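User: Please go through the entry that follows and flag anything odd:
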Amino acid sequence: MFKFLQSVVAGSGSGLKDLPYNIGEPYSSAWGSWIHSRGTSRDDGSPVSIFSLSGSSTNDRHLAAGRNGVKRLRTVRHPNILSFLHSTEVETSDGSSTKITIYIVTEPVMPLSEKIKELKLEGTQRNEYYAWGLHRIAKAVSFLNNDCKLVHANVCLESVVVTQSLDWKLHAFDVLSEFDGNNQGASTGPMLQYEWLVGTQYKPMELVKSDWTTIRKSPPWAIDSWGLGCLIHELFYGTKLGKTEELRDTSSIPKSLLPDYQRLLSSTPSRRLNSSKLLETCEYFQNKLVDTIHFMEILNLKDSVEKDTFFRKLPTLAEQLPRQIVLKKLLPLLASALEFGSAAAPALTALLKMGAWLSAEEFNIKVLPTLVKLFGSNDRAIRVSLLQHIDQFGDSLSSQIADEQIYPHVATGFSDTSAFLRELTLKSMLVLAPKLSQRTLSGSLLKFLSKLQVDEEPAIRTNTTILLGNIASHLNDGTRRRVLINAFTVRALRDTFSPARGAGVMALCATSSYYDSTEIATRILPNVVVLTIDPDSDVRSKAFQAVDQFLQILKQNHEKTSGGESAGDSSTGMASAPGNASLLGWAMSSLTLKGKPSEQTSHAPLNSSGPIATGPSNASSVMDTVSTPTINLISEAYMTDQPAPESPTSTDGWGEIENGIPDDNGSEKDGWDDIEPLEDPKPSAVLATIQAAQKRPVTQPKQVPSSKPKITPNVPKHEDDDLWGSIAAPAPKSVKPSTSKTSLASDDDDPWAAIAAPPPTTRAKPLASGRGRGSKPVVSKLGAQRINRTSSSGV
């Protein structure tokens, strides 16, 4: 019989060698004769708790009660009862004596008395934590008494342990027995076989007298309700109960709990308060901590309105609750709810706020894995919230996670139909780009940015230029040479949106160290100089500063080359590249700008003017003197203010380009190679003049010999300075072949031949001919007919 019981108790092991756990240091206190020790699993090193009970013989009464406790703990399961993992019974002998030990392995816990000393809670936070803990134990007792018809018989401070998430759990089931109040045949025998293990101070009067008849006639909860009263007394007095008379002292019991405390300790068993009624009516349990945790535990039963309201209040509420409970209990609940989809998007704000209270190591373990999984969510609200707060956790992302797990999901937002989401995706690259590989930067990100620079929304075009200037330092040299000048001059400087042109000028200044003297002189300065007559005063101011900066670079290069330095120094840029550092600060403050669109608009007027630097300027002075409003990110209020070229960006939804834009024919181009000027809507007269001048070749036209003047008298004296000369109307197409040959023969000598009037002829011309800029005004129809008749008669 003993071997059978031993096999039932032992579980999967029959000896200590078969116990797959390592036994560590014991705690200073435990219930009864048990020893509570720390332990770890031999498989994965996870922490556990190991309870051990030893006896000298197989008939030891403590061992018999211990076997009862093991059996009950294995079969009774409840969230507020200690979780059983493993058990075994070991027999050892030293030659003269035999020792039998029972081992129980459970989830990692520690005695409640030691945990209270460790937390050191005071005042309101202590009362809230005690209320939550008592609420848990009362639910466990109610489950045993009302649902299972079991009697624990020894509810006290030592029978409660605390988990790593600070949950209180009931254990010590050695005395646990069925309540047989309906068994009339056993009305004279003891109902609790091991009641002798219970201390006299914890026994109600009927149990002290062993009045089993009265006990059987009493409700099932009578004995354990008394035990709850003992637990409350020990909890608030902080000492172990010495004798029953101490329960009459109520000076330390909270007033909201006192009436129920007295009903729990009623001298009449039938009048004692049921633990289930205690949970429903006790005013002491109605506090913020209990309500918050209870809401989180039944989150799936709440509707969307209740969830949204709760999570919007949670960040503020979390500051008022005990910090350790928030981090060890609320935070895991919140992370789990977000990961499995039961929490709304506003919960992410609360999660990040709680995560900010953790150390960097704990954040990477408890919060970061949940955030990485959320990037794959199909809930647009969740993804928007992640992008809005990416600056709070972006630094914790490793390069591998950002490149392989985060970016593929984020990149789908570049082609989203929502302009707001496209802009958020663009801003998030400020955090992610430094962690991306060169393959991802050149093969995917730059292609998306190339399309966004011609987006239909002017704010997105402006922010794309700002971002490109900021991530230039993370690109390799070949990509920078191929992309930057084309992106800033051909596109940004010719944008119809004035803040976009200003952003292009600033980006050129901030990346000045990446251009050699030839590029500055032939490609950058000719495009920047024409912006000195821009209609927008702020763009003009930035253009003047940029011209000063780039001329200073060329001057420094001239001085070095003239001083005898090697020819390799002809590519010298700024020595310290202060512009790059300035752009980092500018783009950071701009791209991370928070607030409502109306608030952002007030900081970025279309025609804001700033102070213009006087005297010589360098890169840092250029960045410092430019007015802040125009370099801030453009808010959504601008998105419909200005005409813009049609965006080629795909807008087919979320998941179309998860793996990036396909590379046609294996090309490595990123969108800016051999770029052609954009087909903008018809600009204003002044802006058209600027764009026309940018398109003119830099080389000087050949001088026209004075001996072959072909220009009509109507052409102004300074026609060669006219910015529109390169785009004038072509020569008339109705001229006779002989005349065309003459005109073409003189083109090499006369640059204006293309727009000069054709040579006079005696033949009649159609009315549509002769409309070049140098032709004579067309006479009236009546006069033309008279001339034709005269010519006919002469012939």
